[in-house]
What does this fold into?
Amino acid sequence: MTDQAARLVVLVSGSGTNLQALLDAADEPGYGAEIVAVGADRTGIEGLDRAARAGVPTFVERLPDHPDRASWDAALAERIAVHKPDLVVCAGFMKIIGRPTLDAFPVVNTHPALLPSFPGAHGVRDALAYGVRVTGCTVMFADAGVDTGPIIAQATVPVLDGDDERELHERIKVVERALLVETIGRMAREGWSVTGRKVRLGA
Ligand code: GRF
It folds into this structure.
């Protein structure tokens, strides 16, 4: 990327602790990225409040306000484009990103499991039910599938005896926030290349 801070649009659907980690990191000199807008698919979420407290512009594009998915996909891409992002980051955004956004911008997603195991909306619950002893989180490019894009970074988290979904997810999220901040910062500062499914950070 350039010497200027990379422009990030961050998409959220929930509590926004990953967003908060990015907001905090972007405040540090030399991080290399700034959050120029936060978008959501619903109102009344803490993620939007976090953006507002940080003085970052927000927008909401709700699927129920559209006649069909294609209309929502197009509207979301337009709302994002207004902010001219270098990178779109889905930080707990609970919708599949459609072609209009994928075709216009690089889109990075974070997932609370070690892909390709346990994709989808219940990655933590599914890993726990399967009985794995190690799980973790994945930062990857979004593509048209469900958590199927090229993997950028992963980190592991042990499953402890007696873990329930909430406890395990909270421990994963500690690691996930750090991984997301580190990965987005490196992408912003060093750039990246993708060859097939292999992602390389750096020039
Ligand atoms: C993260 O674990 C994300 O991967 C998952 O939902 C969680 C969002 O947490 N899809 P938060 O909204 O950033 O606190």
Observations:
- The chain is about 35% helix and 25% strand.
- Helices lie at 17-26, 46-53, 69-81, 99-104, 123-130, 165-190.
- The chain has a mean pLDDT of 97.
